[in-house]
Amino acid sequence: MHYTDDPLMDDARKEHRLLLEPVGTTRGLFGGEKTLYAAACAAGDWMDSSRYEDHAHMESFDHHMYELQLRLQAETEGAPSGEGDRPDEEA
Question: Binning pLDDT at 50, 70 and 90, where does residue 83 land?
Answer without folding.
Answer: very low
